[in-house]
Amino acid sequence: MVTVMEMAAHFGLKTLVGSTKALEKEITVVATDRPGIEIMGFFKDHEFARISLIGNKEMAVIKSLNSATLYKNFKLLCDPTAPGVIICQGLACPPELYRAAKENDCPLFSSTMGTSQLSYELLDYLGYRLAPHTDLHACLLEIYGMGTLLLGESGIGKSEISLDLIKRGHRLVADDMVNISLVRGQLIGKAPDVLQGMMEVRGIGVIDVGRMFGINSLKSSTEIDCAINLVPFDKSQPMERLGVRNDHIEILGAKRPLIELPVSAARSMAQIIETAVTNIKLKEYGYDSSYEFQKRFMELGRKTRGEK
């Protein structure tokens, strides 16, 4: 949820019109509008839930119309249900627009930002704020440029393995809890504000990763590209030997590659995770080691049987 007041504060907009009640209205859609044809009186298919931006093009239309027509059309544009109108580029507010917004208690703002720039940044801001969200008990690191979730039951060693990966030059995004948003098809993960840059290590307590390993060991957020599930090593359970399985994890309806890795004291988990992430990257670039191995094995079998 995001209110008109929160949006205005984020972009430093100057409020020209808007009561407290009007500024508390919720913005419900990730969209903006350039209302040139509406200013001319054409409101068919106009979406009142969108924020309207007025720039130089709209001002050119405004200058071509008489005051009575402008006031009538601005009364429609400034519908009481609309989230507001923003005049961009520091342009002067037309008196007809101010009057219509005042009478309908429709939020009216002024900004020095360019119209296209503000439109783009508004879409980015609303895209994140209105995106589906979830929280996941996991660690999130950027490993070789890939956002990698480390999953596993409590006590499996996620934080300790993450610490080894940080010491090897990879970057921490979140430890223990990850806030995840689905923004335009991308899964974006970050740490809760109170936990950002912090890590809990059993036996030591909470450490400040940025202070201990340098600011370059941290990243505020990253796209989630893959997930690794850490499980206790159990020799009685079958393990993947060839890597032909293509498992996925589904988060907020988006699927990402998932690898299950057994954890034991004898295994260098940081190196194994680096290898796993590298293998996922190779698959994305079109090279599948397991497929290549099977291909070689089949070719060897044909040669053994004397086949061409």
**Using only CA atoms, what is the Rg?**
27 Å
Q: Distance N terminus to C terminus?
A: 65 Å
Proportion in helices = 25-40%
* Structural class assignment: alpha/beta
- Tertiary shape: elongated
User: Main β-sheet: number of strands, strand sense, barrel status?
Assistant: 9 strands, mixed
Strand content: 25-35%
Low-confidence stretches: none
Average residue pLDDT: 90
User: From N to C, what is the helix and strand string?
Assistant: EHEHEEHEHHEHEHEEEHEEEEEHEEEHH
Record field, number of beta strands: 18
Give the number of helices: 11
Characterization of this structure:
This protein is of the alpha/beta class. The protein is about 35% helix and about 30% strand. It contains eleven helices and 18 strands. It has helices spanning about 5-10, 20-25, 35-40, 55-65, 65-75, 95-105, 115-130, 160-165, 210-215, 270-285, 290-305, and strands spanning about 1-5, 15, 25, 30-35, 50-55, 85, 110, 135, 140-145, 145-150, 170-175, 175-185, 185-190, 200, 205-210, 220-230, 245-250, 255-265. Strands 8, 9, 10, 11, 12, 13, 16, 17 and 18 form a nine-stranded mixed sheet that branches. Strands 2-7-6-5-4 form a five-stranded mixed sheet. Strands 1-3 form a two-stranded antiparallel sheet. The chain starts with a strand and ends with a helix.
